[in-house]
Structure formats: C-alpha cells, structure tokens
Design goal:
Length: 270
C-alpha cells in the first residue's frame, strides 16, 4: 500500500479562497477540493509533540501566478491561513488520514521560492490567559468585551484615495482631527482590496479631505481612485471610552489603580 500513498495539502485563506496541492504526479479530488500536482508545494518532515507541545513543520514551494503568488504573499493575504495535511491513498482517496491541522505562521521568500512556518492547533494554549490589570482598557474596540457597534453613524467613513504615501483621501468630512487615530483603514476596491492597517495619525484637510498615516505600509499600495473605509480609533483611556464612544459601562480597564511609582514612594507616618 505504501506505493500508492501521497500527501495532500489544503490551504484556506481568511477570505475563503481554498487551494489544494499534492506531491502525487496526478490530480486528486476529495472533500470538494481539487489537489493540484503542478504547484511545486512540498512538506518538510512533520514533528508532532505530546501534550501541549507545538506541532512543527514547514511548507516549501515555488511561486506560481495561478496558485500562491509573490504579490499575495507580500500583501499578507496568506497570513494566518488554515492548513490541513493528509496522507492519502491516491488509488482510493476515501482511504486517507489527517496528519496535521493548523495555520500558516511566518512566511519567508527567497527568489522564486517561499518557506512557510506551520503552527499547530495547540499553539494558542501556550499563550498567557486571563485579564490584565492596567489603567487602560484591555478590550479591542468592537469585540465581545467592548460591545461597541462600529456601524453606528459617525464612527466610520468612506473616502477615495487621492495620493499615495501619506494617504490623502477625499470625501471624508465631519470628523475632528485625530478622530481615526488608533483606528483601522480597510481597502474596499482596487488591487489592495481587503487589506487593512492601523492608523498612526490623521488630519483634516480643507474641503473635506483627510490625510492619513499608517503604522505599517500595506503590502500592496492603494492607487489613486481606490475606495477605503476609515474606522474610529480608541486609545484605551477611560476618558475616551466615556466621551467619544459613550461606552464607559463596558470599559475593561482599571483607571483608579495607583501608578507604579506609588509602590516605591516613601511612606510618611501620620
């Protein structure tokens, strides 16, 4: 039976795109996925630990315009993609065994090839859990703890890119300077569709425009004419939660904690 065993990979991006690869010399098809033999994708030896050890492996492949492209890798479209690896009998694909399930980690590129780290399902169990006691809020704006609805009027705006670099947008007016700082910019059209980044600074321009600076550049730069959405930002302070979002009941920080220097300050007897 070992003569008919092959490996098959399924990689699913966060936007729902699913690609299948196999090291067999012919195409395979199961679970509604077509596994292609012409991608150049292969796998290093899989290392699986007992207990809570992190599964460890690596996918290696050649860049292909019809599969995993350099442009998509640089844009981060494959970051965090779900990965499944089977050992399958190519003469009868119903006879298969799931070897690995996890996500793509760091992706490295060298010339026309890439190497992607694979992270197993047990990895999140090694992260710190529980609440952080800090004056600022520990929630993410709009998540299940914050409970703020970003679709409320005034907390998001759409605009059109006028210039690249420090993005100049038109059609965004009625917001104070800095309203979108610490928020998010999401690209709605063009080659950078779906990419997003955190906003470092934003300023109102005459005539209803906006000038936005991002913390990290997008993998694909939005071009003039592309549409983007700006979402209001939160700096995690209690005052911001109360005055800007009217959401203080859901504030997840501890604003009345004494500062760190209070612990080492000399005590005065009274």
């Amino acid at each position: 039976m070992s003569e008919t065993i092959a490996r098959a990979w399924a990689v699913e991006r966060r936007d729902g795109l699913v690609l299948g690869f196999t090291d067999h010399d012919g195409a395979l098809d199961f679970d509604g996925i077509a596994f292609r033999p012409d991608s150049g994708l292969s796998a290093r030896a899989l290392v699986q630990g007992l207990g809570l050890s992190v599964d460890n492996s690596e996918a290696v492949g050649a860049l292909s315009d019809s599969a995993i492209t350099e442009r998509d890798l640089m844009a981060g479209r494959w970051d965090g993609a779900e990965v499944r690896l089977w050992e399958v009998d190519w003469s009868d694909t119903a006879n298969r065994r799931l070897l690995f399930r996890g996500h793509l980690g760091e992706v490295l590129r060298s010339g026309a090839a890439f190497r992607a780290e694979l992270r197993g399902l047990s990895e999140p169990l090694g992260r710190a859990q529980g609440r952080v006691y800090h004056p600022r809020c520990s929630a993410v704006l709009g998540d299940g703890q914050c409970r703020f609805d970003l679709s409320r009027p005034g907390y998001a705006a759409e605009g059109v890119v006028e210039a690249e670099g420090r993005l100049a947008l038109s059609g965004v007016d009625g917001h104070d300077a800095g309203w979108f700082e610490h928020g998010q910019l999401v690209v709605l059209s063009g080659e950078a569709l779906g990419l997003s980044a955190r906003v470092k600074a934003d300023a109102a321009l005459p005539g209803g425009g906006r000038e936005v600076e991002l913390w990290t550049a997008l993998g694909i730069r939005p071009a003039a004419g592309d549409r983007v959405r700006l979402e209001a930002g939160c700096d995690k302070r209690a005052e911001t939660c109360r005055m800007k979002f009217l959401n203080y009941l859901n504030f997840r920080g501890f604003p009345h904690l004494p500062p760190e220097d209070w612990l080492i300050a000399p005590k005065v007897n009274r």
